[in-house]
Write a structure and sequence with these properties.
By secondary structure, the protein is mainly α. Helices cover 56% and strands 1% of the residues. Keywords: Membrane, Transmembrane, Transmembrane helix.
Length: 363
């Protein structure tokens, strides 16, 4: 399962290059740690050995200058072991990057990659890992995460939370939980993960979410740089899908569309750097996981509480194609099927220059 062909055409990147990007980051996670400290390597290369006026092939051990460089590196000692959390964080982020690329052309493989990244983030003690897991699988979080959110909101823990579900273990986390929970983004990810499994039986928690200080904070968070209050409201709306007569579906749609427009603008701006864009090296993620994850959570909530399901063309068709990319991935993660959009005769998009959608964004 892939995003619709019209969205590939809007992206204007070669699918094979996107696949290679996924393979690169997956391969990174399988590499052996370097035997030398990176700072020592940089110092040795900066010194340059005896022959600073010519390039050196560091694999040519027959070259006396190269042998001198390797000898110098060996004398500086072995690689200093990093803090325990560092290799886990590097692996988590590489898997996240691989998932972002893979979700565009192979949803099942991308979902697996997302779950692998999530496990590493959970090991670190980051609620982002819970959010990714719930978005990718529909799982519920455990009692420790629910209690942590209750503590954040200043209400008694309810004991809710699925046993044997994905959960945080503060005693085994590689990062300190108090320091993690001081970060607004992690508070938001915890909220998103918990509300995905809320039921009407927890009115105190629902009320506390709506009155929390975060619900009025205007400062930007996440890659889309949208206000914290907007994301917080989105989580609150997902929790309120239990009230089928409240207009929640329309409000959720409008909020997600707002985020999607922001992501579409980021993609459109990145397309102007033609070289990096067409080689899948842009500095912006082709899929925004915050948006895709929130869309997946919302789509499952609509289905759970028997509200009309979202349709990409009907509900989000007024958005530019670039703005629909993360929404399409999110709807698929949430159980939707976009295959009907593609005509079998629709050709594979070629690696041409990106589509110019400036007029759609008002630039």
């Amino acid at each position: 399962m892939s995003i619709p062909s019209r969205l590939w055409r809007a992206l204007g990147v070669d699918r094979n290059l996107v696949r290679l990007r996924a393979q690169f980051f997956t391969g990174f996670t399988e590499m052996e740690p370097p035997p030398y400290d990176r700072h020592a390597v940089l110092e040795v290369l900066a010194d340059g050995g005896r022959d600073r006026d010519r390039p050196l092939d560091l694999l040519d051990r027959d070259d006396p200058a190269v042998r001198e460089l390797w000898r110098d590196l060996t004398e500086r000692g072995p690689r200093t072991p990093p803090d325990r959390w560092v290799p886990v964080a590097e692996r988590a982020d590489a898997l996240r990057q691989a998932a972002v690329a893979t979700l565009l052309f192979d949803l099942p493989a991308g979902r697996t990659m997302l779950r692998r990244a999530a496990r590493e983030y959970v090991r670190l003690g980051l609620p982002f890992g819970l959010f990714l897991t719930v978005a990718a699988t529909g799982a519920r979080v455990g009692p420790a995460a629910t209690a942590l959110l209750a503590s954040l909101l200043g209400i008694p823990a309810s004991g809710d939370g699925a046993i044997d579900a994905v959960d945080l273990d503060p005693a085994r986390s590689l990062l300190r939980v108090p320091e993690v929970m001081a970060v607004s983004e992690q508070q938001l990810y915890l909220l998103m993960a918990v509300v995905a499994g809320l039921s009407p039986a927890n009115p105190d928690l629902l009320a506390a979410i709506g009155s929390a200080p975060q619900s009025t904070q205007p400062f930007p968070v996440g890659a889309l740089a949208q206000p914290l209050s907007s994301w917080w409201e989105t989580a609150s709306l997902i929790a309120r899908t239990t009230d089928r007569g409240s207009g929640t579906r329309r409000l959720l749609r409008d909020r997600l569309a707002e985020f999607a427009r922001a992501h579409g603008r980021h993609l459109e701006i990145a397309q102007r750097d033609v070289f990096h864009w067409e080689n899948a090296l842009a500095g912006v993620d082709l899929v925004d996981l915050d948006l895709a994850g929130a869309t997946a959570l919302a789509a499952r909530a609509l289905r759970l509480w028997q509200l009309p399901r979202w349709d990409l063309r009907r509900d989000f068709g007024d958005l530019p194609d670039l703005a629909q990319v993360s929404l399409a991935v999110g709807l698929q993660l949430g159980g939707g099927d976009l295959a009907y959009e593609d005509d079998p005769r629709d050709p594979e998009p070629s690696p041409t220059s990106a589509v110019d959608e400036a007029d759609q964004y008002g630039f």
